[in-house]
Structure formats: structure tokens, C-alpha cells
Amino acid sequence: MAVERTSPVAAPLWSGRVLEWGMVVAIVLVLMGAFDRHVRGVQSQGELAAVKSTLGALRTALVLDFLQQTVSTARPHVVAQQRNPFRLLEAVPANFAGEFGALHMETVAPGSWVFDPDCSCIGYLPMYHQGLEGPAPTPAAWFKVGGAPGPLQITAMETYVWQGQVLK
Description:
Layout: H1 16-71, E1 96-99, E2 112-116, E3 121-125, E4 132-133, E5 141-146, E6 153-156, E7 160-162, E8 165-167
Parallel strand pairs: 1-2
Antiparallel strand pairs: 2-3, 3-5, 4-7, 5-6, 7-8
């Protein structure tokens, strides 16, 4: 008995197996794109929470400094307008870049805070600036440190909207 050998038949280029794997790859790419978009939204929300927390800590430090100056008679009253509010914190945030003017913001790393002694204001350059909407062409958010007699206030210099929330 002789066994017949058949010659191998070439499979067509678009066989069912190739089409199945192509669909799997397409579905994985779509899921990765959706996941990446969701991750960016979550990262932007986390950055917004950190910005609000830092602003709250600075406001609290200004109020506590004012109360301490009011109660203390041995310590002379210092003009607080010229003081860097970050220096009032117990620990300066790791993302505080130092004292820079608005013109030097391009040298600051994204995700950093700065203090501008010329205008007595603080600025923040977001890491994910896609979530920050403001009237100025610069992606940084600026806040004025000042106010009437009493504790100094931190107020936004422009109207900034971050993921639908007004940043105050």
C-alpha cells in the first residue's frame, strides 16, 4: 500500500484566522484608547484636588500668621504683602519651584508652584493643562496675595475653569 502524499496548499492571505486576529487587535487598541482617555481624566482630577489642597493650606497659613501677629506684642508687625506665603507653611511643598516672574514660567517644570515677588502673586503650571481653561494664552493659573486689613487673601487673577469647576 502506497501512501499518497499531497502537496501543501497555500492558504489565502485573508484566511479566517488572520481576520480573527485582526479583529482582536482592533478591539484591544480601542480599549487601550478608552482606558488612556479615562486615565488622563483621573490624573487631571487628582491634580485639581492637589491644587485646591495647596491653596487651602496657603490660605490657612495666612490666617494663622495674621492671628499670631495680632496676639503677639513682642514681635513687630511685618508688612505681609511682600512675604512669600509658601514660607509660612511648616514644610514647603516639593513642587514649589521658587520665586519666578511670569516671564520666566517656561523654565519651570509642569506641576510646579511659583511666587512672583513683583506682583505678590502665586502661580501654578499644570502638568495636564488640557483640563485648565482660562482667558490668558499661558497655561498657568495665577492668584493674587493681598487684601484689606485683616488676613491676606488669595484670589484668582482670572476666571479659571478646571474640568467644569471654577478654580478660586
